[in-house]
Design goal:
The complex is a heterodimer. By secondary structure, chain A is of the alpha/beta class. In chain A, strands 9-8-7-10-6-1-4-5-11 form a nine-stranded mixed sheet. Chain A has a five-stranded parallel sheet with strand order 14-13-15-16-17. In chain A, strands 2-3 form a two-stranded antiparallel ribbon. In chain A, a hairpin with a 2-residue loop joins strand 7 and strand 8. In chain A, helix 3 packs across helix 4 and helix 5 runs parallel beside helix 9. The termini of chain A are far apart. Chain B is α/β, with parallel strands linked by helices. Chain B has six helices and 13 strands. In chain B, strands 9-8-7-10-6-1-4-5-11 form a nine-stranded mixed sheet, with helices on both faces. Chain B has a two-stranded antiparallel sheet with strand order 2-3. In chain B, strand 7 and strand 8 form a beta hairpin. In chain B, helix 2 crosses helix 5 and helix 3 crosses helix 4. Chain B is globular and about 65 Å long. Classes of the chains: A alpha/beta, B alpha/beta. At the A-B interface, helix 4, strand 7, strand 8, strand 9 and strand 12 of A face helix 3, helix 4, strand 7, strand 8 and strand 9 of B.
């Protein structure tokens, strides 16, 4: 089975994450090139129907009550055992909250290289080539594993999801290792607090980042939002600083938004942020750094100072 | 409680990043280095944990730049109790696998109850250091964590998922935590205090071993070619505002 491509299926609240399908589609392409199979691995409990909806060549479904919810220790142990037993060529996982807990540790446990932040994968004359997006999206690094096998953690949205949807034969197995002495215990899921505003439902978002400078300037964004009948959203540094509630955060660990107009003010455009807003119909970005990655996804851009622009814009909107 | 915080310096991303002559890495000589932002949050969370549950905080890093002392002095000024650096012939941009192994060897001798480190760094091409340290030490790991509470030999941690959903885990100590964000923004250390500490602080030096390598080889490094680029508007803020209003009107969202 040395040429098989493993994909770690990710699921939460009884639903498969899109990254599962994105990786599966790419894995099928790689497996065909290497002469192996795309094997999705789903760890869960009572989740056979989820396993049946992945369009891999085959799905290994490990059913154990300990795996009902993601548990980094349990997942690591099971995956380490499966990698050792089945020796896949490539193990793909998301560079997500789940995969980031697993990949690097498995790399040490299994003695395999890890290539992280992957947004490109190809088979090149029998070699496996992975491209990583690093340094906040400013650099791409194309790398090959020193040995044959490798673990990769893939960025969400890097590959199309459609080719990974479908169904495949499911092989249900019991956990290959005992899971009765775990040091990590899952307690509960905490759903996001009900926010004052649901930013996923707004036609216009006035979104702010580090460029806002200080908490006292948030008011400028709020005044504009009010004039527009819009809501204020933000990138991670703003909510981390406590200047806006977490319910206003757009991005990887925040919310995914698809407004008709996304005004990105003072946002540099780290990959984690882009992940949450690139689906907006119209993106207008204002940032003093003309090389900010936000301009690569924005439709229109300007490099003026947002602190001058915000009041000017509010006035224009009010003036009709 | 014994808290250890592994830290890492990374290139300052606000600088222009230049690629070296053979196109396989950065031109590290041209770069300024700063403390990984997530590690700043780890330091803050460690100091908060010490303040609420007692104990001592040790900050440790691999000195890949010859300039780690500044970051260690700042951590001491923020409330860490001890600082250590792993020294040796380490190039700038030393891979994560090597740094994790060196850090794990050093941390083993520190007998930590909890290891708090940044969940990731912008130069983690070969993976995040936290889970690797945990694997070397045989400790459990939970990452993308925004809150740690320690009591009675256990830690309760809150881990973030997409969409604002969080999971709560209870973990037996010792453990390694990948900190996404501290309970509060990292505190500011006055320059005068850092200077004062620099004069008196003792930084333990730990001789590090070999650079083992990342297990993968970079064939080519390049700046991404954007699939698209925004059409840029020149002009004063008033003129830009005018154009934005026109676009919003075109969408039918403004009368």
């Amino acid at each position: 089975m040395a040429n098989d491509i493993f994909i770690l299926a990710e699921h939460l609240n009884g639903k498969l994450a899109d990254i599962t399908f994105e990786m599966t589609g790419k894995a099928k392409e790689l497996a065909a090139a290497f002469g192996g199979q795309a094997v999705a691995v789903l760890l869960g409990s009572g989740a056979k129907s989820l396993a049946e909806s992945i369009g891999a060549d085959t799905v290994l479904y490990v059913d154990d009550s300990t795996l009902a919810e993601f548990n980094p220790e349990a997942y690591s142990r099971v995956l380490a055992a499966m990698i050792k037993e089945r020796g896949p060529r490539v193990v793909m996982m998301g560079n997500t909250s789940v995969g980031m807990d697993l990949g690097a540790g498995l790399s040490v446990m299994a003695g395999l290289p890890l290539i992280a932040y992957v947004n490109g994968l190809a088979a090149d004359g029998g070699m496996f080539v992975a491209t990583s997006q690093i340094y906040g999206g400013k650099i791409q690094a194309e790398a090959v594993p020193d040995g044959e096998a490798c673990i990769v953690s893939c960025l969400a949205g890097a590959f199309p999801a459609d080719a990974g949807r479908g169904s495949a034969p499911v092989e249900q197995i019991a956990s290959p290792v005992p899971l009765d002495d775990l040091k990590v215990k899952f307690v509960k899921l905490i759903q996001p607090e009900g926010g004052d505003v649901d930013i996923t439902q707004q036609p216009i978002l006035v979104s702010i980042g580090r460029g806002i400078g200080g908490q006292e300037n948030i008011e400028l964004a709020q005044e504009l939002a009010e004039a527009l009948g819009a809501a204020v959203s933000a990138s991670r540094p703003i909510t981390d600083a406590g200047w806006l509630p977490k319910t206003r955060q757009v991005g990887k660990s925040g919310l995914t938004v698809k407004p008709k107009v996304y005004l990105a003010f003072g946002i540099s455009g780290a990959p984690e942020h882009l992940e949450g807003m690139r689906g907006a119909e119209l993106i207008i970005a204002v940032n003093t750094d003309p090389k900010a990655p936000i301009f690569d996804v924005a439709h229109y851009g300007a490099t003026c100072d947002m602190l001058d622009l915000l009041p000017a814009l509010t006035e224009k909107v009010k003036g009709g | 409680m014994n808290i250890v915080v592994p830290i890492k310096q990374i290139p300052n991303l606000t600088d222009e990043l230049e690629i070296n002559g053979d196109g396989t890495g950065l031109d590290h000589d041209a770069l300024q280095y700063v403390l990984n932002e997530f590690d700043e949050h780890a330091i803050e969370e460690a100091v908060l944990a010490k303040e609420s549950a007692g104990g001592a905080v040790t900050v440790v890093g691999v000195d890949t730049t010859g300039e780690l002392d500044g970051a260690l002095h700042t951590a001491l000024a923020k409330g860490a109790d001890k600082a250590a650096k792993i020294t040796g012939d380490f190039p700038r941009g030393t891979d994560s696998h090597t740094q994790a192994r060196l850090l794990a060897e050093a941390i083993k001798d520190m007998s930590p109850d909890i290891v708090l480190t940044g969940v990731q760094a912008a130069d983690d091409r070969d993976g995040q250091i936290g889970p690797m340290i945990a694997a070397h030490l045989g400790m459990p790991y939970v990452g993308v964590v925004t809150g740690v509470t320690v009591s009675g030999g256990k830690a309760v941690v809150h881990k973030e998922y997409a969409g604002g959903v969080m999971a709560e885990f209870e973990v037996s100590l010792p453990m390694v935590v990948g900190v996404q964000a501290a309970h509060q923004p990292p505190r500011y250390a006055p320059v005068s205090k850092i200077r004062q500490i620099a004069k008196t602080a003792k930084i333990d030096e730990i001789a590090g071993g070999e650079v083992a390598g990342a297990g993968s080889t970079v064939r080519r490094m390049f700046k991404p070619e954007a699939a698209g680029h925004a059409e840029m508007w020149d002009g004063s803020p008033e003129e830009v505002a005018e154009k934005i209003v026109a676009m919003i009107k075109e969408k039918g969202l403004l009368k």
